[in-house]
Amino acid sequence: MKKKNSKNTKGKIVSAAWQLFYRQGYDDTTIEEIVEASGTSKGSFYHYFEGKDALLSSLSYLFDEKYDELMEVMDPSLTPIDKLIFLNQELFLMIENTVSIDLLSQMLSSQLITSGERHLLDNNRTYYKLLRQITIDGKEQGYFREDLSINDITKAYAMFERGLMYDWCIGSGNYSLCQYSATMLPLFLKGLCR
């Protein structure tokens, strides 16, 4: 039970922080405001994060929360390919509507320069567990190529999504991430399929 409470506390802090970052901007948000908005304490904040900069890598936690929500509403009869497209579209729509380009850019760049944990590559994240399960199902059902391993497919898909986010950021969001992905992702997935 204690582990769940600690996950909830960390999740509350992350969620409140990113909502404030989106509304006020990263630089104009204080730790005190994050603590107040999350309904936690400063001690809890510093238990999980060294400072505000440490929150930049936590955007992946919000993405995982979204994946947890999507798993509850996703039609189980979808093919593995359609599941990947559904998850991608829903996440990218969330990014477009709730994550500023500046924040996403800061998060991506923090992953490049950090000497600590690279959350985007953490195989224990909900994202990777979900991708892996969909890939396993896809292999068993004969959707994916025989010459590609489950790890190959999962890694390629994750790199493709990160590449789309990165390009959207360096392009200053001058196009719809969601719409562009709706066109490009099926083409990418075709290369992984039999």
Question: How would you characterize this protein structure?
Answer:
The protein has 194 residues and is mainly α. It has two domains: 1-49, Arc Repressor Mutant, subunit A (Orthogonal Bundle), CATH 1.10.10; 56-190, Orthogonal Bundle (Tetracycline Repressor, domain 2). 70% of the residues lie in helices and 0% in strands. It contains nine helices and no strands. The protein has helices spanning 2-24, 31-38, 42-48, 59-73, 80-98, 101-113, 126-140, 150-170, 177-190. Helix 8 runs antiparallel to helix 9 (177-190). The longest helix has 23 residues, at 2-24. The protein is globular and about 55 Å long. The termini are far apart. The model has no long low-confidence stretch (mean pLDDT 88).
Task: Give a topology summary.
Elements: H1 2-24, H2 31-38, H3 42-48, H4 59-73, H5 80-98, H6 101-113, H7 126-140, H8 150-170, H9 177-190
Helix pairs in contact: 1-2, 4-5, 5-7, 5-9, 6-8, 7-8, 8-9
